[in-house]
Design goal:
477 residues, alpha+beta, Aminopeptidase, Alpha-Beta Plaits, 2 domains, 9-stranded mixed beta sheet, 25% strand
Length: 477
């Protein structure tokens, strides 16, 4: 049964250790753990990811907990001390982060954590290094407050969540899965469903004539907020571009003409919150009379394909009550051997899925003379909200917060929960306080520049998570 007295004790402990929590979170967030290549088999996702994973495990060891790194698979397992062992509750967090564009950050550099007002700003503070530190301090609180459990808590620390989840897939093959699997990589109360995630690349068959290069983005799951095109130098072309430039478009002269478009970044799971810079660029270039007909033919179709975040032009737009609407985000554009390539991250419901979805997308792009290449596809995930862990979690959440009408929800983002039997995602930060940091539009969120975490929300969220985990433990017999 939920104990508000026990919750208050845990919250007091967490608040008393706020400085320590911020110190340890800053330590992890100072590490640029973006996936990269490495020739070392013990660094499957790159040197920086391996270093950050080891540092996270080291923080657990320094605080008296066991932590083993499975280097070749890119994950670590940490276990709490003085806890029961009848069952196992797994908690999953990741130490890797999405790529950054340092020039877009306004209040600090991405890997130089800074406390501003009631927030901490750095890449990874909310997605998902905050969950690593939350898990550590929950274990510390239970031990130091003398709160026993029936179950063992096992903390999974991953290093490849943002670019394939090969770490958790390896874990599921190599280890016995816990009895309950909880992923603090979402929001409160609990996410009992996740849209499918479908990623693919599109390439034009015809090379450009006037356009030398178009480039922008480094990850599928971040909507493009800045894209640049280099064009062959031509006086008439430059003058027309310069005259038609606007607040969203800048034009620079040089050995090439550089045209840059600026949009609004967004996580692919919430693509409708952003504005695609590549779409802005294509619309602008299509209005340039001096641009070659060949290049405009390519851009005309590209503009159509980018024009609607709900994928209406592709013929796959749909909505249902559980998963909501299908959306598509363009996160990468480049030019290879003079030919345009651009990439999509689609978050889809289960109205159309699997081969039917892939065939519809392939048909749309190939009919227009573009080449299609699938990158990855994970299907929709749906959990039973009446299962013990989720029902217990939700009942406890309502009792603790007084939000009697709170309901579990479906998220567009992908988490480890999709690869874990019965796994579901929850929050870390509990949104009880307003952030008092002013940021530009398209900044502050996960996968955005100036990623922030509200410190009071994090403290409340850690304590809330601890008490709800204890409630599940009480019911896991």
């Amino acid at each position: 049964m939920i104990s508000k007295e026990r919750y208050a004790r845990i919250l007091d402990y967490i608040k008393a250790h706020e400085d320590d929590i911020i110190r340890d979170l800053s330590c992890l967030c100072s590490m640029p753990s973006v996936t990269s290549e490495s020739q070392d088999e013990n660094e499957p996702f790159g040197h920086e990811c391996a270093l950050c994973l080891e540092k996270a495990a080291e923080l657990f060891r320094q605080n008296g907990f066991n932590a083993d790194v499975y280097a070749k698979s890119g994950y670590a397992l940490a276990c709490g001390a003085n806890l029961g062992s009848k069952k196992t509750i797994g908690i999953y967090a990741h130490t890797d982060v999405v790529p950054v564009n340092e020039t877009e950050w306004t209040v600090t550099k991405p890997f130089e954590p800074k406390v501003i007002g009631n927030c901490i700003v750095a890449r990874g503070v909310s997605d998902n290094k905050g969950a690593v530190i939350a898990s550590l301090y929950i274990m510390k609180a239970l031990r130091e407050l003398g709160i026993g459990t029936n179950s063992k808590f096992q903390i999974f620390l991953g290093s490849n969540e943002e670019s394939g989840m090969r770490d958790v897939k390896a874990f599921a093959k190599e280890q016995k899965l816990p009895d309950v699997n909880i992923v603090p990589d979402a929001g409160y109360p609990a996410a009992i469903g996740q849209k499918g995630i479908y990623r693919f690349d599109i390439r034009a068959k015809k090379p450009f004539e006037d356009i030398v290069n178009i480039s922008g983005g480094t990850a599928y799951n971040i909507l493009l907020d800045k894209v640049s095109a280099k064009l062959k130098r031509n006086d008439a072309l430059f003058e027309e571009l310069r005259k038609k430039a606007n607040d969203e478009i800048t034009v620079e002269d040089g050995s090439f003409i550089t045209v840059t478009a600026v949009g609004v970044s967004a996580h692919a799971a919430t693509a409708w919150q952003g504005v695609n810079a590549f779409w802005i660029l294509t619309k602008f270039l299509l209005g340039i009379e001096s641009l070659s007909k060949n290049d405009k033919e390519t851009l005309k179709f590209v503009e159509e394909s980018l024009s609607d975040v709900y994928c209406n032009p592709w013929g796959i737009a749909s909505e249902n009550e559980f998963f909501g609407e299908t959306t598509g985000a363009n996160g990468i554009v480049r030019t290879v051997n003079g030919c345009l390539e651009y990439a999509f991250d689609v978050r889809h419901n289960d109205n159309i899925r699997g081969e039917a979805l892939e065939n519809a997308v392939r048909s749309y792009f190939e009919r227009a003379g573009f080449e299609y290449k699938k990158y990855s596809h994970s299907d929709c995930m749906k959990r039973d909200e009446n299962s013990m862990p989720i029902k217990t979690f939700m009942d406890g959440y309502r009792a603790l917060t007084g939000k009697e009408d709170a309901k579990p929800y479906v998220m567009g983002g992908g988490t480890y929960a999709n690869h874990l039997d019965g796994g579901f995602a929850i929050g870390v930060g509990y949104k009880a306080y307003e952030k008092n940091v002013e940021l530009p539009d398209g900044h502050g969120g996960a996968h955005q520049a100036d990623e922030i975490c509200c410190i009071p929300n994090l403290m409340e969220g850690i304590a809330l998570m601890a008490e709800l985990l204890l409630e599940i433990d009480d019911n896991l017999m």
